[in-house]
Amino acid sequence: MALKDVLNKFVNWLSAPELERPTAAITTWIASFSAVSASDALGHPAIWRAINIISADVAKVPIALYRRETDGSRVAENTRPEARLLRERAAPGVSGYSLRRTLTAHALLVGNGFAMITRDPRGQPVALTVLDPTVTSINEEAPLSWRTTIKEQTIIISDSDMVHLSGLCWDGLNGESPLVLLREAIRLELGVQRFAAAFFEKGYALSGFLKSPRALSVDEVRRLREEFRQRHSSAGNAHDIGVLTGGLEFQPSVAEPQKTQLVESRDAGLRAIANMFGLPPHKLGDPTRTSYASIEAENADYLQTTLDPWLVAWEQEASLKLIPERERDRYYFEHNRNAVVRTQLGERVTSYAKLIEIGVLSPNEVRERENLDKRERGDSYYVPANWLES
């Protein structure tokens, strides 16, 4: 956070009436300064990849708008404006995929993702504009509204005109920022990365002591230090041959990578970051698990415990904010989760066949689960002959 922004926030807070400075707001304001910046966190390759993977996997799952029929069936209504926003173009230059991926990435990184809904005179949504989550917060001066800054202008947006995707919440409204809650864990991994970069950038010979058998003058110390640094600094000079004269001895102070457990620390960091985001470690390049059986099981668990909660959050928020209230009992958004588990088609076919054989599902119910249209005479249930009464 720039010093200018810090001072502006502090001045605005001081200028507010005493009753408008709740303890929670003060705590949040103070906590914002101890957070790891988003750019620093994304500078770690594992964090970058974790957010990239989850946000892309969530956004690529097809989402559709359905209408419930009186007979219990459903019909896709993907030509309606609210469906087109999420499936085709959310705003000029922003696709539905980019919108969902960006808001999911914001929620993963800072706890909240926001998009402002623009409506036509009839109240139909016509655009979803991505907002900067770091300058968007609950408006405490009015109920169910948000305050944001666009081009240095403060704007108040009603909650009904805001698509809000949040992570873990304490109050049910504002998602908690991992950059604040997990700042020490993130700083640890950033510290390991900086140490590794500095270690290989400076090489082995730079960090250490030159021992002289006699006392040296200030000028001699400065000259020796400068010559030694120029000769042996940087990774390019790490393995160069040095020559010491006049009884000088070099005593290194940098430990070898094996002794500092640098490699082990970086591998442990991958697993820690994978744990933060609910990812199987192999997706971040952890080499300790290479068994096909374990990877297959971890991928299945990833779909259920990591992706599905975000899919549910998108479905409920889109249904609540984009569908008119008078139509919410008939229309709803839903993802095609079968698109995520295409590799398990054989298992699904076997299961469907058994459920049809024992009369649990009809062919049309199976087709509905696979997002296929109904077929004629597909609503009848098969009853095994040995189950019929004689």
Can you walk through the features of this model?
By secondary structure, the protein is α+β, with helices and mostly antiparallel strands. The protein folds into four domains: 1-34; 38-182 and 266-336, no CATH class; 186-263, no CATH class; 341-390, no CATH class. It has helices at 3-15, 23-34, 38-42, 45-59, 81-87, 96-110, 178-181, 183-202, 218-232, 257-260, 262-277, 292-322, 345-357, 363-369; strands at residues 63-68, 74-76, 89-91, 94-95, 112-119, 125-131, 137-138, 145-150, 153-158, 162-166, 208-211, 249-252, 331-335. Helix 5 (81-87) packs across helix 6 and helix 8 (183-202) packs antiparallel against helix 11. 18% of the residues are buried. Residues 18-31 have low confidence and may be disordered.
Short description:
With 390 residues, the chain is α+β, with helices and mostly antiparallel strands. The protein has helices spanning 3-15, 23-34, 38-42, 45-59, 81-87, 96-110, 178-181, 183-202, 218-232, 257-260, 262-277, 292-322, 345-357, 363-369, and strands at 63-68, 74-76, 89-91, 94-95, 112-119, 125-131, 137-138, 145-150, 153-158, 162-166, 208-211, 249-252, 331-335. The relative contact order is 0.11.
